[in-house]
Amino acid sequence: MNPRVGHGIAAVVCLALILVPLIDPAATYEQTVLLLAFLVAIQSISWNIISGFAGYISLGHSVFLGIGAYTAGILSTRWEVNPLVLAPLSGVVAVVVALLVGSVVLRVKGPAFVIITIALLLLFQILAVNLPGLTNGSDGITLELPFWDPEIQNIPFYYMFLGLMVLAFGFSVWIRRTKFGTGLVAIREDEGKAAAIGIPATLYKNLAYAASSFFVGVAGAVYAYFLTFLNPLGAFNILVSVTVVLGALAGGRGTLWGPVIGAFIVSFASEAATVYGGGSQSRLLLFGLALVIIVLFMPAGLLPALQRLLPKRPIEYTDHVGAMEHRPIEVTTRPIEDKTGPLLEIRDVHKAFGGLHAVNGASLEIPRGSITALIGPNGSGKTTLFNLITGTGGAHTGQIWFDGSRIDGLAPWTRAHRGLGRTFQVTRLFKSMTVLENVVSPLGSFSPSVLASGAVSGHEADRARDLLSFVGLGRFENERAGALSYGQQKLVELAQVLMLEPRLVLLDEPAGGVNPGLVDRMADVIRAANRQGITFLVVEHNIPMVLDLCDPVFVLARGEVIASGPPDVIRNDAAVLDAYLGEVPT
Ligand SMILES: Nc1ncnc2c1ncn2[C@@H]1O[C@H](COP(=O)(O)OP(=O)(O)OP(=O)(O)O)[C@@H](O)[C@H]1O
């Protein structure tokens, strides 16, 4: 849909929602149904930041509603202040709890994270029951009545929840448009890859969890005042969490509008089930059925399902790549280094998987400014060594030095910030992003200001376009990366890694599965980037290409370097021939 049409519809709906209480101020029931839908929407929108954008599904997210509610409840009775005054503080307390808890629970993902978030909700419920000195235990806390005329009881709450919903939505839209938002989507799609292109995944996830808690905490304070009574079972209620998740899933997890639309659908359906379906127990049945239907028939949610029905611009499926542009394109802005000595040193590195020694005492040095090859039979440990160099391969022994500093032990994104880039054997582009978004997503360095900067804007977008032209794919910038051919994706991944301003690029089988025309293009691109000062380490099975492109060549067999030297020497090395023929070198 045209974004302008979408914004127009949103403005009309918003205006209608503002007018509802003015048209019939006495319609208390309708106002209550709507304000509770706003409350679910605030939570679904917030949940979407950690679970939709970043892909970490929190099934106990209403814990922050309870934390916000209890913060306001406890402090308003002690300090004798209105709970509304404490609402921002409730949001801050939710953020602090999210940061503390997140630093532990975000170390796991998938089902383990889901279970921990449910446990968290139950943990806070138990705490609320068992800390009677603070929370008044199971008896709960009674708050003061609203200070305004009981005649208009719901109307101020209605506008407060509506306002909070609009603010939470604006916040989520803003996040999605920043580099932080793109980084979260990258983490959702492929966390390992995101880390390898310099996105500090741990920080991003923690910030996303904190960001997803703020408005829920604020809403909790307002909700406590609305209810004027709090108890552990009500405040930390798993059913509220399920409603929130169901809303976002139904509407479209990861989209901007999906959680809002879904929250309204689920809230109204829940109310209808309660009124017409024989009481609140029928809600459980309805939620269970809805969850099954969504998972089976609309896993991406309503909005993405509707979007798929809209007519689409045909995608040009072709393996053709444009000519590399003749205008000089600056692949790197780093000056050519005049230092001497190896850029990368691997010293006696060992990595075992159980009893299998995938890398078995490998040592090698990559000269600055070279295009070095690392070849070897299948299973000889080349990719494993790449993983160890870039920090995604887990624990190992031995040392890895980059530009005179030891880097083993550093996080993958820190290594990327130092100038270490890599591509993968099977391309790992973020397939739901456009080609241009993919190329701008790497972070060559990190500072807090990066978080708020626009995802695809300014100088960076220009540079990304230049790099796409450099690999001959400029005209595909607005296509979804997943729609390109495999060989084209390999070239996009190369443009993406060049965006890091790397000093050393590790290429894992750049010619694997690529047609011969593209192989030549790949070699041209590597040579051109190398002339501008970028060092390459290439793993490749296309031996003619390697021997033509690289010098020196290292040969790995059974995790050890069995030969190294210029291509002509390697070509005639008996041990290398033996290794490739499958015999044990003597
Ligand atoms: N995560 C893992 N768990 C267990 N074994 C692994 C793992 N990763 C790699 N291996 C094993 O380690 C050995 C080296 O694998 P690696 O992928 O590094 O080889 P390679 O030289 O890159 O092979 P290819 O040329 O086929 O890509 C293989 O025997 C492989 O099965």
Automatic annotation (TrEMBL):
Pfam families: ABC_tran (PF00005), BCA_ABC_TP_C (PF12399), BPD_transp_2 (PF02653). The lineage of its organism: Bacteria, Bacillati, Actinomycetota, Actinomycetes, Pseudonocardiales. It is a multi-pass membrane protein. It comes from the Bacteria. It is found in: Cell membrane. The chain crosses the membrane at residues 35-56, 63-79, 85-106, 113-135, 155-175, 207-226, 256-278, 284-306. PROSITE patterns: ABC_TRANSPORTER_1 (PS00211), ABC_TRANSPORTER_2 (PS50893). Signal peptide: none annotated. This is Branched-chain amino acid transport system permease protein. CDD domains: ABC_Mj1267_LivG_branched (cd03219), TM_PBP1_LivM_like (cd06581). Residues 344-583 form the ABC transporter domain. Keywords: ATP-binding, Cell membrane, Membrane, Nucleotide-binding, Transmembrane, Transmembrane helix, Transport. SMART domains: AAA (SM00382). InterPro entries: AAA+_ATPase, ABC_AA/LPS_Transport, ABC_transp_permease, ABC_transporter-like_ATP-bd, ABC_transporter-like_CS, BCA_ABC_TP_C, LivM-like, P-loop_NTPase. Its main location: membrane.
